[in-house]
Design a protein that fits this description.
By secondary structure, this protein is mainly beta. It is 4% helix and 44% strand.
């Protein structure tokens, strides 16, 4: 594995790699297949906060590009071709990484933690002790608090091997940060493969009992962000979902999707389901009832106009399906104005408010244990 060092301000590093990967025949009738793989990794220092350097990383496999930063563990752009070969960005974003430091935004592309999603009443009990958190979403705590992982500068280093380019990022959340107990060390890997897979992997360890629930919060729009995502077609492998109260906190019920607007087990046009529901979605779709390391296909999304497709796989138990219900006349990148339903999030994670719901999978992490979470977004074209 090769690692590349940080650069001085204003400098850029471009690493081009041409690999020849060969598969060995399994029998005499098999043919040797050789595929040319072109991977590039570009590193640019774009800002500095005190003594902390902020970089933009561009991963390129010759077909698609992913831009990310060690500020907030952020994915800022995902550029993929449509059925006619036109390459466009499909992630809601700002024009530059430095803007994320100063311009408020609704978690575009961010790593959400130490606990993603909502914690009801901004408090929880762990081992007989009550922990109070900052209420930053009405009376609740959302995505880690006032300054969650999305506002932290992560230590980072790019890497490559024969079939991957990526960035490894590490962040130490100290005991008491945002009210959470324990020193929590989190490592995040984000990488691009030659076959158009964006892979995100988390690992965390703690020195005290604490709670952890990490995810990525990219807003997707497979049209190239040309309008609302109501024309996208979704299919979820989910038989149940989590009903919520007026504060968007799960009630604790696990409800069958049958006969509800949440039944996406067959492909459904999003706009039709929003109409049936009377509003957009901001709900936990239940993918597993118990935790396991099994990688499961959660969602298949198609944008018929462009032909772009996205499949999401994860080893977690749920995915928060959010349809940008609260976007309103937001000045986004390239002079575009993002409005309601102009993006969708597929936030692979534990079920929301799990620490306060006794029948939900536990978010507790103890010393000696390791939190692990793997997500894959697989991009393609459907004619």
């Amino acid at each position: 594995m090769k690692y590349f060092h940080s650069l001085s301000f204003g400098a850029a590093l471009l690493i081009c790699m041409n690999f020849s990967c060969q598969s060995k025949p399994e029998n005499q009738e098999s043919q040797l297949i050789t595929e040319e793989i072109n991977l590039m990794l570009k590193v640019e220092k774009v800002a500095q906060i005190l003594d902390q350097e902020i970089f933009k990383y561009t991963l390129d496999n010759g077909h698609m590009q992913v831009e990310m930063s060690n500020y907030g563990g952020l994915i800022s752009r995902i550029s993929v071709p449509d059925k006619d070969g036109k390459v466009e960005n499909i992630a809601l974003t700002l024009d530059s990484i430095p803007e994320f430091l100063t311009k408020p935004n609704p978690f575009f592309g961010a790593t959400a933690g130490r606990v993603a999603n909502r914690i009801g009443g901004a408090k929880f009990e762990l081992n007989g002790k009550t922990y109070s958190l900052a209420p930053n979403n009405g009376p609740n705590t959302l995505h880690g608090g006032l300054e969650g992982f999305n506002k932290k500068v992560w230590q980072s280093e790019p890497y490559s091997n024969d079939s991957i380019v990526g960035v490894k990022m590490t962040y130490l959340s100290v005991d008491g940060e945002e009210g959470f107990p324990g020193n929590l060390t989190t490592t995040l890997w984000m990488e691009l493969t030659p076959d158009n897979v964006l892979r995100i992997r988390f690992e965390s360890e703690t020195d005290q009992p604490t709670i952890v629930n990490l995810t990525n919060h990219t807003y997707f729009n497979l049209s190239g962000i040309s309008g609302p995502v109501t024309d996208h077609v979704f299919q979820f492998n989910a038989d149940a979902y989590s009903p919520i109260d007026e504060g968007l906190i799960p009630t604790g019920e696990i409800k069958d999707v049958t006969g509800t607007p949440f039944d996406f087990r067959e492909p459904k046009v999003l706009g039709d389901q929003i109409t049936e529901n009377g509003e957009g979605f901001d709900h936990n779709m239940i993918m597993k009832l118990t935790p396991s390391k099994e990688m499961k296909q959660f969602v298949h999304v198609v944008h018929p106009g462009s032909g772009r497709t996205m499949d999401m796989y994860s080893d977690n138990v749920g995915v928060q399906f959010y349809t940008a219900n609260f976007l309103d006349n937001f000045a986004g990148a390239e002079g575009k104005t993002y409005d309601k339903y102009w993006g969708f999030c597929l936030e692979s994670q534990n079920w929301p408010d799990a620490i306060n719901q006794s029948n939900f999978p536990s978010p507790i992490l103890n010393p000696g244990e390791k939190y692990e979470h793997l997500i894959e977004y697989r991009f393609g074209i459907e004619n």
